Amino acid sequence: MIIGYARVSTDGQTLDAQLAALKAAGAERVFSEKISGVVTDRRALARAIAALGPGDCLIVTRLDRLARSTRDLLNTLAAIGAAGATFRSLADAWADTTTPHGRLMVTILAGLAEFERSLILARTGEGIKRARERGVRFGRKPKLTPHQIAEARSRREAGETLVDIGRLFNVSHSTISRLADHPL
């Protein structure tokens, strides 16, 4: 079965041209919605993918009707493939997983996206390492200064309760209880 998906971004736009093109391409069922492509949680798209079975094909008039980013596209294509179905964009001949050439193009696209992600992770890791070498500390800013930590520890050793010490410094008793492990 051929299932169509049509989307426009705003209420002022019409789905008529997309619906006609999808019907002309043989779509037996068409799911449509008026929602921005930036939104990744699109109900009609989710219903269209859920309706797919082995051997079915999801079609769109143009690729940008399906996804706005490479990651979104790859996630959507993975969901379509997991259903045992294929995908085809009417205006983008290369985006057609029903053909060997189309599957090759999608595989190359997926490989490039994975490569880009690994480069980003490597650069991020190097940047974090350099920042740590410069003395940059990551994580939340401490709630107490080193002086307050020393004072809280001495009060705790003197027998004051965690709750009372926490009130004094306007922090929770849990924060005070963790001070035993906190380096000055």
Please explain how this structure is put together.
- The chain is an alpha/beta fold.
- The protein has two domains: 2-109, Resolvase, N-terminal catalytic domain (Rossmann fold, 3-Layer(aba) Sandwich); 146-181.
- Helices cover 49% and strands 11% of the residues.
- The chain is built from seven helices and four strands.
- The chain has a four-stranded parallel sheet with strand order 2-1-3-4, with helices on both faces.
- Strand 3, helix 3 and strand 4 form a beta-alpha-beta unit.
- The chain is elongated and about 80 Å long.
- The termini are far apart.
- The mean pLDDT is 87.
Summary keywords:
184 residues; Rossmann fold; alpha/beta; elongated
Secondary-structure element pattern, one letter each: EHEHEHEHHHH
Shape: elongated
Percentage of residues in helical conformation: 40-55%
CATH topology of the largest domain: Rossmann fold
What is the compact description of this entry?
The chain is of the alpha/beta class and 184 residues long. Helices cover 49% and strands 11% of the residues. The radius of gyration is 27 Å and the shape is elongated.
